[in-house]
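tool_call predict_complex ligand=flavin-adenine dinucleotide
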Amino acid sequence: MTSILILYGSETGTAQDLAESMGRECYLRHITARVYDMDEYELGCITTEKVILFIVSTTGQGEMPPNMRRMWRILLRKSLKPDVLKGVHVAVLGLGDSSYQKYNFAAKKLYRRLFQLGAVTLTIPGLANDQHELGIDGAFIPWKKEVWKEVKKLDIFPEMTLDPDPAIKIRTRYRFFYGEGAERYQDDGYVPLKVISNRRVTSEGHFQDTRLIDFEMPSYPSYKPGDVLMVRPYNPTETLQIALDALGYSDELLDRPTRILNNDPYVKPPPCFLVGTLRKCLERLWDLQQIPKRSFFEMLAYYSRDRAEKERLKELASPEGLDDLLDYANRSRRTTAETLRDFPASAKNLPPDALFEILTFIRPRAFSIASAPSPSHVELLVAKVEYKSRMSDARRGLCSTFLSRLKEGDEVYCKIRPGTFRFPDPEVPVICIGPGTGVAPFRSLFGHGSSKGLLFFGCRGEHSDFYFSDEWKDIEGVEVIPAFSRDTEKKIYVQHKMRERAADIKRLLEAGASVFIAGSAGEMPKAVSEVLTEIQGEEWMKKAEETGGIQFETWS
Ligand SMILES: Cc1cc2nc3c(=O)[nH]c(=O)nc-3n(C[C@H](O)[C@H](O)[C@H](O)COP(=O)(O)OP(=O)(O)OC[C@H]3O[C@@H](n4cnc5c(N)ncnc54)[C@H](O)[C@@H]3O)c2cc1C
Ligand SMILES: Cc1cc2nc3c(=O)[nH]c(=O)nc-3n(C[C@H](O)[C@H](O)[C@H](O)COP(=O)(O)O)c2cc1C
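tool_result ok
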């Protein structure tokens, strides 16, 4: 039987989530679908496929996610004939963030290559943007509408309906199982690290709470400067409590030992340390803190047995209800737990298996390692995200809040992975620009003791958030140039300090120095690039970007 192939390339699970939801949508349209991680797929069969949907995120600085790199290398082979994908219909959805300079590069490159290899494109690539007011849905919804229309026209799937068939009952991807049996869980490389200390590094009166957190690393491979620690956070207790109250499950059900079984052979089971009981899943597996997406309202409406609430949920999930949804959820930064509370009749006593379709899994977060390589410990410099919205309680970032509350002896599931930076040999000088927590990878580099160069650091004030100010003077060969934005009437940022030191920068660049920029993906990387262009010219910038002479590790 002909089926659709859905391939995803994902770093932190969003593309995987969308790929699996497209698989579910196929099922509701009477189409069989296979959903694979791109590098899991047997590429030798690709020429026999009829329709392939690719859903890929961009990571690093315009890079392919790790789980599609093998396939990408093969697709790039010069030996492939230009018509090798003739007759294969493809559509590409990219996930990206326009605050990165190489916006959605992975999807754009993949689309171009598929086209070069003769694939028939069903529609132009959808480019989802984290910065869009509606998030990923802003591009995902119109893209999939177009895809279904074009797939229907192909007439390959005789049973296919253009819209989901309301007569088909949704089959949850997973189900809870309370008996004995073999376990099959994903081993995604995360290990528990124990907290040694968690110290505030901003002054007490300062608005920003930034933490230096030290973890013990028993028998874990060491790391290099520039590496990143991926952290799996849990929901905060107050958010968990709101959800537990809304869902109304008994303690007996919440604490009954359980396991998760797959209903769909193509989806991966979650890591076992996130499961065990329903309560543990609500604490560790599902994101109760994120702003609910449109699919949340769609699925809660599907399971709701309350007429009035069902109607309201459907309204919020409909294309006409877009502004209403933005106002209700996005502009107020309402959490998933608070939304469950707002729909009490629908949330109360939901079948636990339905939560797999209504809620989404918590995404791990990346943090640049802030300590010099060590076989026994690793440090992170974490700025706690906290802000106000029109909701009465403060809004909090999930992972930074989780980390900021850790106590000595607590355990956190983490994994080390390479970051974007490729630092040169120690004899090559470096020019580093790292305002705020962007200084983390440079503390790792210079703490190593061998690299030399300039470090431009930016913060609000010398006595409020000048991280590691007492450490730098002891490091030989490194000059730290701070820019304090609130200590004088005129705001001074790193780019101003760079202009003042243009002659030194030029001298170092001409001696072969490399430039590294880390921190907020907002205005800073652009402002710094402008100064470097003023100093060395556009040609130099272009070449430096291509050859790794200038590298960025920025985040939004
Ligand atoms: C490679 C890499 C390295 C990183 N290194 C570090 C590091 O060393 N230190 C560090 O602290 N972080 C670092 N980060 C960022 C980190 O991964 C998290 O993104 C950050 O801690 C926030 O995550 P969170 O879970 O607390 O917030 P989330 O729950 O993910 O919420 C963040 C979201 O909140 C919203 N938001 C934030 N502030 C406001 C506001 N004022 N108004 C409205 N909305 C707002 C934004 O939409 C933002 O996307 C790094 C990121 C990457 C990719
Ligand atoms: C470390 C990191 C690097 C990123 N780099 C880029 C980038 O260069 N260009 C871009 O458009 N988006 C970039 N993004 C945004 C992601 O592509 C986007 O958040 C996407 O939804 C993540 O999907 P995933 O969870 O499937 O990996 C980056 C995100 C992270 C966490």
